[in-house]
Design goal:
Strand content: 35-45%
Enzyme class: transferase
Helix content: 10-25%
Strand order of the largest sheet: 1-2-3
Keywords: Glycosyltransferase, Starch biosynthesis, Transferase
Mean pLDDT: 88
Distance between the termini: 34 Å
Number of helices: 2
Pathway: Glycan biosynthesis; starch biosynthesis
Shape: globular
Order of helices and strands: EEEHEHE
GO molecular function: alpha-1,4-glucan glucosyltransferase (ADP-glucose donor) activity
Low-confidence stretches: none
Radius of gyration: 16 Å
Largest sheet: 3 strands, antiparallel
Number of strands: 5
InterPro entries: Starch_synth_cat_dom
Length: about 140
Amino acid sequence: KQAQVGVEGLRLAAEVEVPKGFMWDGEMCVGPLRTQVFQGTVQGCPVYLVRPAEGTGSNIFRGGRIYGGSYNEMEAYLYFCRACLEFLRHSHQQPHILQLHDWHTAAAAMLYWQEYDSGGAGRTRVVLTIHNMENTG
């Protein structure tokens, strides 16, 4: 039998405002999306879980499937990249390595260099790992 793995000690670590595009009266606008970041551990490893806050009306990452629920995947993963970087800024964390996986998080590299370390003075190095060349997003 395979043991079920859960998140232990789950607690709200922070709420951050994440810049996000939206359509308003036929025009593209940018506004904040209140985002919750939860902290816990999985098999002794610290983890952070990110989602739009309850009550925001966002359907990002909602649906019956992991991929392609009732939301636009590209919009969802762009939001996820920005939300993670906003949390790093909010919590004053500067990781040594920003490890990105597949197309879902690839935009975080560009966002990091453009919005969070535009001068290139930070210590963070970015690594992109591609697991599945057939899934291009």
